[in-house]
Amino acid sequence: SARGEFHLDQRLLKTLSELNWDRPTDIQSGVIPHILEKKNLIISARTGSGKTAAYMIPTIQELLVSKIGDSEQKVSVLILCPSKELCAQSYKNLTMLTKYLDLSSVNISSQKKHDILKPILLKRPDYIIGTPSQVLGYVKEGLINIKELKFLIIDEADLMSGFGYREDIEKLSNDINAANSQILMLSATLGEDVKALRHIFKVRWFRLELNNSEMLPSTEQLTQLVKKCDEEEKFNILVGMFKLNLIKGKTIIFANTVDKCYRMRIVFDTFHISSVVLNAEMPVASRNHIVHEFNVGRYDLLLASDEDNLIDNAEKDFTKKKLNKDEEFKISRGIDFNQVSNVINMDCPSTVESYVHRVGRAARVNQKGQAVLFVSIKDNDKFTAIDNMLMKDNNGVSVFKPFKCSRNIYEGFVYRITEALSKCTRASIRQARLLDIHKEIENSHALQAYFQENPTEMKVLQHNKPVIKERNQHMKNVPSYLIPPILQEKLKKNSKKRRRTRFKEGTKPSINKKKSSNPLFSFKKKAKK
Fold it and tell me: What range(s) does the Helicase ATP-binding domain occupy (predicted)?
């Protein structure tokens, strides 16, 4: 098999087989041999191409071989990630790959307290995962010894400087024997930030740019659509398509601000469209739980913002308390969302890189997906810049196709949507936002305490509860007169299929039995025995 070329341990091969990782991706085929040859690598590959497994599989293999001759336990692999979410994600992937192996690991960015982590670190686990600042803190305390590292891995390297970690990495480099360690840096892009990190370590680097000629998957794998419209029409289209079930599969809608996310949430709640907001103001435990629940299919619609600015001072004064935003959190970068079918850009992103990372949530690895970009008049210049950049990877042809949506789809909802939008005042958005954050803080405490002891009951928590107090019930179901004629026949067929499925085992609606036994329906009276 393709995996046999790497001469991997049989226990590791068994795990890969159980995960249905039958064949390595292009990046894994390109990277693993170089890691096994003990080269220091700067790896650039587009998002969703399998970078994490590309470095974990060979480091696990090398560790299994080296531990045979080691006389004492020591920290062998240090994985640095720019955010708590990415640390948790890397730790999850590592535990999956090592479940049949006698290798220890710890994620120091988890919510475990210092007193709990201390005895774990004193045992010198094989793998340590954390953000640079957290690792540096434990190194200074003497709880982590990185002088004998075999591997240093810097994941999402282009984010490290932006999050202020360059100085921390420089300090960590003083304790790392670069001559005896293998250093790997991974990134979706190779910019000045990555070049600056490279100069910290005085080693010979090898650069691998895989799939870098294409910023995004091919047009066969990822369909990119664009719709030029005003702000209200965006809501008209989305509400109409969700209410008529024209958008299938898991969907992430990106907005440029958190306020815009809650504006969408209020409108969706009005029409009984279930959604959940994910942003940097939420506690990390809640964010991780939301991502997990989205991945397992409990939520199908995620509203996200990757804005850099926190709420303004007026909103801070409203609570008499500062709402802290996690500066490490970026929804569009690195986090794995499973089987996302659609990415919708409610607002046009400000840069090409931001667009690429947003859209990269769909069509990951070998899956297909589609991305929709709404462009208002004021965003024409931004869209032109994005289009021109992507055209370079598509032989000078635009990757965007027009998003065709007939006004008949949403025309019946326009009046109700206008009414819902009129209620989205600044005060109501602020109130919904604070209500959601306070609710998530309560959820976070529950997650940290009770659900650590009862992990199977985590599904009790809900993150998609309405953020408005009253919802009109007449908005819940779509009357037949609002459904375009072209869709009515299709919906009738679907409803018949659902009814057949419901009674397919020979059962019949109980109403027939009631009618036959009720003299008011049958005009028959049972004779007394």
Answer: 32-208
CB 305 within 8 A of CB 324: no
Distance CA 210, CA 24 (A): 14
Q: Are residues 303 and 409 in the same domain?
A: yes
168: in domain: yes
For residues 496 and 487, what is the distance between their CA atoms, to the nearest angstrom?
Answer: 14
CB atoms within 10 A of CB 305: 24
Whole-model pTM over 0.70: no
d(CA 59, CA 53): 10
For residue 2, what are its two tokens? 């393709």
What single-letter amino acid sits at 107? Answer: N
Which residue blocks in 156-299 are alpha helix, DSSP H? 157-160, 166-173, 192-198, 231-243, 258-270, 284-295
Cα separations (Å) of 301 from 234, 247, 254, 371? 16, 10, 11, 14
Count how many residues are written for the chain: 529
Q: Which DSSP helix (H) or strand (E) runs through 428? A: helix 426-448
pLDDT digits (tens, 9 = 90+) for 406-440: 888 888 889 989 999 998 999 999 888 888 877 77
Give pLDDT tens digits for 265-321: 999 999 999 999 987 777 777 787 788 888 888 889 999 987 543 333 333 333 333
Clarify whether residues 14 and 50 are in a common domain.
Answer: yes
Q: Are residues 330 and 401 in the same domain?
A: yes
Per-position b or e across 440-472, b if 16+ CB within 10 A of its CB: bbebbebbeeebeeeeeeeeebebbebbbeeee
Which three-class secondary structure state does DSSP give residue 128? Answer: strand
- 486 CB contacts (<8 Å, ≥6 apart)? 408
Structural domain including 303 reads: 222-475
Distances (CA, A) of 289 to 300, 438, 444: 14, 16, 9
Residue 234 to residues 258, 401, 430, Cα–Cα distance (Å): 17, 17, 22
- The candidate with the shortest Cα–Cα distance to 345, out of 373, 308, 369, is 373
Indicate the residue among 147, 176, 210 that finishes a domain.
210
Asked if residue 524 is part of any domain, the answer here is no
Same domain, 195 and 170: yes
* CA distances to 117, 126, 346, 455 from 94, in Å: 18, 11, 35, 19
